Amino acid sequence: MRKIGLTLVLILSLALLSACAHTSQTAVTGTTAATLDAIVQKGELVVGTAASMPPFNMTTKEGEIIGFEPDLARLIAAGMGIPLKLEPMPFSKLLPALETGKIDMILSNMTMTPRRNLKVAFVGPYFISGKAFLTKEKTIANAKNTVEINSPNTRLVALKGSTSQFFVDKLLSKTQLTTAASYDEAVKMVIDDKVHALVADYPICVVSLLRYPDADLLSLITPLTYEPIGIALPGNDPLLINWLENFISSLEGSGKIEILEERWFENADWVKKLP
C-alpha cells in the first residue's frame, strides 16, 4: 500500500509540475504575441507604422505608404518568404497594438528607450537620429541647448507618445506644450503660428523644409540628442529576435541599408508624391 501511495503521489506531482510549466509559459508569452513560427504559418507579416513621418514612413496622394521603413519592412518580409501588410495608425497606438498582438512588429521611427524596452524587445539601431526644432524663429532654430528657450512664453508642439514629448516634459518643462496626433498636424501648427516650434527628430524637420519651401521655416541641423531608432517586437520569441538581428546585420553588411538611406534621405524626389 505504501508503494502504491508513493507512486500515486509521484504521478500527481509530475502532472502538477507539467501543468504549472504550461501555465507559466502561457503567462510569459501570451496567446496573441507574435512568434516567428506563427508569422510564417499565417503567411503574412503585419508591420505597424504611423505612415506620416517622412522620410521614414509616409502616405502619398494616392494612399500608398512609402518611405525608408516600408522598404525595410518589405525586405524583412521577403527574407521570411511571405507578403507584407502595412498597418497604419497613430504613433501613440503602435505599442498597445504590438502588445495585444494586432501587429507583429513596429517600424515607425521609434527610439529604443529603456522605458519602452521594459515592455517590448528592440532590434537595431538601423538609424541614428536626434532632436531638433522646426520653427520660424531664428533664436529657436539656432538654440544649442534647452536653457535658451525654456520659458513660459515659448509654445511648443510634439508628437503624442513620442520621445519628443518626453524630451519637452523633462528638459523644457517651463514651456507650453501641445501634443499632435501626426507630424502633418504639428507642422501645420508651426506654419499657422499657433506654436513657436515643433520638437522632432532632425530628419523630420529637414524634410519639412523641403516640403514647405515657401513657409519661412528654419531648423537646426545639428541634433540636440542621441536617438537610436530600432524595430520593436514582442519579447516572447528568442528565435524571432535572433532572426531579425541577423537579418538586419546582413542588410548592413551588404550595403542595402546604405542604399535605402541614399534613396530616402539624400533624394527628395518623393516629396512631389505627398499631399
Defining key terms:
275 residues, D-Maltodextrin-Binding Protein, domain 2, 2 domains, globular
SS-based class? alpha/beta
What is the 3D shape?
A: globular
CATH superfamily of the largest domain: Periplasmic binding protein-like II
The multimeric state of the shown protein is single chain
Largest sheet: 5 strands, mixed
| Rg from Cα | 23 Å
Mean pLDDT: 88
If classified by CATH, what would the architecture of the largest domain be? 3-Layer(aba) Sandwich
> Roughly how many Å apart are the termini?
83 Å
Strand order of the largest sheet: 9-8-10-7-11
Question: What is the beta-strand fraction?
Answer: 15-25%
Kindly describe this structure.
- This protein has 275 residues and is an alpha/beta fold.
- It folds into 2 domains: 36-128 and 229-273, 3-Layer(aba) Sandwich (D-Maltodextrin-Binding Protein, domain 2); 131-219, Periplasmic binding protein-like II (D-Maltodextrin-Binding Protein, domain 2, 3-Layer(aba) Sandwich).
- It has 11 helices and 12 strands.
- It has helices at 2-29, 36-42, 68-80, 91-99, 114-117, 138-141, 163-171, 183-191, 202-211, 238-254, 256-265, and strands spanning 45-49, 58-59, 65-66, 84-88, 105-106, 121-129, 131-135, 155-159, 176-180, 197-201, 218-219, 227-233.
- It has a 5-stranded mixed beta sheet with strand order 9-8-10-7-11, with helices on both faces. It has a 3-stranded parallel beta sheet with strand order 4-1-5. The chain has a two-stranded antiparallel sheet with strand order 2-3.
- A hairpin with a 5-residue loop joins strand 2 (58-59) and strand 3.
- The radius of gyration is 23 Å and the shape is globular.
- 35% of the residues are buried.
- Residues 1-31 have low confidence and may be disordered.
